[in-house]
């Protein structure tokens, strides 16, 4: 089996690449980073040429943009996706396409309630709007015959997490504070509850989606831990693992991506039923992997 992985040099892309390399049924992985093919700016014929050359059995799209204004986010997460799936339909119509969506597509959840795939999306940020538009492009292509599945990923944690993620940003602040001998670090508000999921568990779900027998066309599957964790608890885990003895100062204002979302936890029962997948790693394991990676950098 030959798999093309787009966005291979990103946070989740690195985890997916490692999981594909360990998958017995995958014979070849064509890892494509942004430097090799930027879906935002690549000409349609360049995208088509990649698939004509590789003739993949599955394509995984872990590329995209998490910051910028709405136009930039739509360009990377929706327009580029629409062009991508159209190229797939023309060149390799029998391919399995695995698309990484986001829990941000749902918008605010209801406290103490798990968000299922049947929930009506109501994104509250430009990022969520753009990711939802990308998912809609994939589902439209599925209606036209493409075997496509969307994985709505919640809040991944693990090695490689960038500063655009809350865990990655806080880990870097802790590292800088330790090196500088600082007595405190500042974070955004930490009272929100999130569904933190290990990045390796996400990669496992992605690989299972790529190699699953039978059509998955049009499926939307939540990929999370299924548990709500207050952001403050994750930061306390980071502090404990790092040995930082300073104070955590919480600012009043949070990020635009997560503002106004006090609770967001996914129901992962459908992924379990369709893929035989379940989250296996603890949050402590995820945080330790993140800290070890940041501390060694």
Walk me through the topology.
Elements: E1 2-6, H1 11-21, E2 28-32, H2 44-54, E3 58-61, H3 70-91, E4 96-102, H4 126-143, E5 147-153, E6 155-157, H5 166-180, E7 184-187, E8 193-194, E9 196-198, H6 199-211, E10 219-223, E11 229-230, H7 231-242, E12 247-250, E13 263-264, H8 269-275, H9 283-295
Parallel strand pairs: 1-2, 1-3, 3-4, 4-5, 5-10, 6-9, 7-12, 8-13
Antiparallel strand pairs: 8-11
Helix pairs in contact: 1-6, 2-3, 3-4, 5-7, 5-9, 7-9
Description:
The protein is an alpha/beta fold. The protein has a domain at 2-159 and 199-225 and 265-280: NAD(P)-binding Rossmann-like Domain (Rossmann fold, 3-Layer(aba) Sandwich), CATH 3.40.50. It is 41% helix and 18% strand. The chain contains 9 helices and 13 strands. It has helices at 11-21, 44-54, 70-91, 126-143, 166-180, 199-211, 231-242, 269-275, 283-295, and strands at residues 2-6, 28-32, 58-61, 96-102, 147-153, 155-157, 184-187, 193-194, 196-198, 219-223, 229-230, 247-250, 263-264. The strands form 4 sheets. The chain has a 6-stranded parallel beta sheet, with helices on both faces. The chain has a 3-stranded mixed beta sheet with strand order 11-8-13. Helix 1 (11-21) links the parallel strand 1 and strand 2 (28-32). Helix 7 (231-242) packs across helix 9 (283-295). The longest helix is centred in the first third of the chain and has 22 residues, at 70-91. The chain is globular. The mean pLDDT is 95.
């Amino acid at each position: 089996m030959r798999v093309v992985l787009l966005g291979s040099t990103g946070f989740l892309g690195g985890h997916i690449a490692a999981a594909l390399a360990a998958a017995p049924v995958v014979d070849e992985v064509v890892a494509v980073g942004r430097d090799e093919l930027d879906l935002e700016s690549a000409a349609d014929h360049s995208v088509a040429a990649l698939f004509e050359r590789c003739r993949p059995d599955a394509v995984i799209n872990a590329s995209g943009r998490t910051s910028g204004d709405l136009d930039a986010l739509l360009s990377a997460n929706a327009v580029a996706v629409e062009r991508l799936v159209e190229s797939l339909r023309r060149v390799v119509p029998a391919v399995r396409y695995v698309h990484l969506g986001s829990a941000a597509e749902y918008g605010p959840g209801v406290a103490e309630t798990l968000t299922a795939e049947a929930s009506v999306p109501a994104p509250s940020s430009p990022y969520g709007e753009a990711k939802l538009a990308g998912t809609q492009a994939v589902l439209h292509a599925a209606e036209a015959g493409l075997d496509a599945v969307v994985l709505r990923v919640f809040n991944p944690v693990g090695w490689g997490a960038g500063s655009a993620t809350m865990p990655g940003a806080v880990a870097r602040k802790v590292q800088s504070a330790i090196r500088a001998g600082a007595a405190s670090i500042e974070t955004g508000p930490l009272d929100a509850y999130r569904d933190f999921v290990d990045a390796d568990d996400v990669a496992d779900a992605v690989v299972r989606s790529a190699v699953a027998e039978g059509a998955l066309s049009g499926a939307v599957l939540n990929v999370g831990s299924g548990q709500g964790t207050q952001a403050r608890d994750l930061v306390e885990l980071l502090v404990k693992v790092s040995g930082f003895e300073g104070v955590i100062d919480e600012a009043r204002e949070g990020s635009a991506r997560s503002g106004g979302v006090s609770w967001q936890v996914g129901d992962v029962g459908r992924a379990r039923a369709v893929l035989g997948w379940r989250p296996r790693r603890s949050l402590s394991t995820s945080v330790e992997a993140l800290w070890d990676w940041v501390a060694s950098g």
